[in-house]
Write a structure and sequence with these properties.
It is an enzyme of class 2 (transferase). The chain is of the alpha/beta class. The protein is built from 14 helices and 15 strands. The radius of gyration is 21 Å and the shape is globular.
């Protein structure tokens, strides 16, 4: 089967979803299914692969130009997609995101004579801002409607834009969709509840290096290192983690917080860290890959996944568990599907630094428990 995968995305760079796209490409190829990834994005892929094409989009920072791009008809995008279909001759099209140039993409998919499936990486189909969290840390039931203007959510003037985007998707794309593939049961339930059907639970997989699978995962001794890894964006909850770390340091003055990753929120977070007096206790490692990534996991006693807004299925939690590290995560999205409270980590409320600190301390205060939780998590992931 020949699979054309379209990624219409407006993200700030390569993150978990984008890394997952490439992982799936390799897996499909190994099983004899040629596939081609088409990126309609405002950021050029950092490490494009041979079976990948890229058409640059207007960045989100250029708001007026981006709106004209998304709401208008773009002949260059249509021609690019049509030529790709002619040359590649797919048996199946898989849509990842519906953001950049969505009017043109939607019209193209409406006229497409090839089966279509959608991989739902986030909550964009059921929330205009993708957070699914109302003010007061209330988990929302979802739905993109005019009432969102009156919930206190930060939809701003973007709500009419989101409503139009949803209308085009529902009218042009949804009737063509054979299935919505959902990495988490949480998102599957959301989509099914809002009549995006059939919604199918298809868990993501983390590519665990063979040496990790076959090797041992000794639990670290010595200083209390807490880890965080990912893309530094506001919804990842790193602000809450920094505030929680202040509480941790009151009991463990030598504790270290290792932050691996980069993103648009890094300057503000680094400033907050200084304001909180954390100084050198927070290590800003930047992006880590390969041996650096393995060294990061080897050194931490617990990984924090403190997402403050909807998180579909964070692969970093699986990666940590595979290496025998317990995880403290927040009770939102697919995180509780990975982290079993009291078995391989702790689940705490969102946007609650005090509860997050307690969860981290539960691991640090009892190294034997942390090691046991890590071992349980490793067995779960590798079985």
């Amino acid at each position: 089967m020949r699979i054309l995968r379209i990624n219409s995305w407006d993200g700030p760079g390569t993150g978990g979803a984008e890394g997952y796209l490439r992982s799936v490409m390799d897996e499909l190829e190994s099983r004899g299914h040629p596939n081609l990834l088409v990126n309609l994005t405002d950021v050029r892929p950092t490490a494009p692969v041979p079976d990948e094409r890229y058409l640059p989009m207007v960045p989100m920072t250029a708001a007026k130009a981006r709106m004209r791009q998304d709401l208008g008809e773009l002949p260059r995008v249509s021609a690019f997609l049509e030529e790709t279909v002619r040359s590649f001759r797919p048996d199946l099209v898989q849509l990842h995101h519906f953001e950049a140039a969505f009017t043109t993409v939607g019209r193209f998919l409406r006229q497409l004579g090839v089966p279509l499936v959608v991989t739902a990486h986030d909550a964009w189909l059921v929330c205009p801002i993708g957070t699914l969290v109302r003010p007061g840390t209330v988990i929302c039931e979802g739905g993109i409607r005019w009432r969102c203007q009156f919930t206190g959510c930060a939809v701003g003037r973007g709500l009419p834009y989101s409503l139009w985007q949803k209308r085009l998707f529902d009218a042009w794309v949804a009737p063509k969709v054979r299935a919505y593939l959902c990495p988490s049961r949480s998102l599957m339930d959301y989509l099914d509840r809002h009549r995006y059907r059939p919604a199918v639970h298809l868990p993501s997989f983390a590519q665990i290096p063979l040496q990790v699978q076959q090797g041992s995962a000794p639990y670290p001794r010595g200083a209390a290192h807490i880890g965080w890894i990912g893309r530094l964006e506001s919804y990842k909850g790193v602000e809450d983690l920094l505030r929680a770390f202040v509480r941790v340091r009151s009991q463990y003055p030598d504790a270290i917080l290792d932050i691996a990753g980069d993103g648009s929120a890094r300057p503000a977070l680094a400033s907050l860290s200084e304001q909180l007096g954390l100084g050198p206790a927070v290590k800003w490692l930047g992006r880590v890959r390969g041996p650096e990534k393995e060294a990061f996991f080897a050194g931490v006693k617990v990984l924090a996944v403190p997402s403050s807004q909807y998180e579909n299925f964070p692969l970093v939690a699986l990666e940590a568990l595979a290496r025998g590290r317990p995880v403290v995560g927040t009770a939102i999205g697919g995180i509780p599907e990975i982290v079993e409270d009291g078995r391989n980590g702790r689940i705490v409320p969102i946007q609650d630094p005090a509860a997050l600190a307690e969860g981290l301390l539960d691991v640090l205060k009892d190294p034997a428990r942390g090691e046991a939780w890590g071992a349980t998590g490793r067995r779960k992931v590798l079985q």
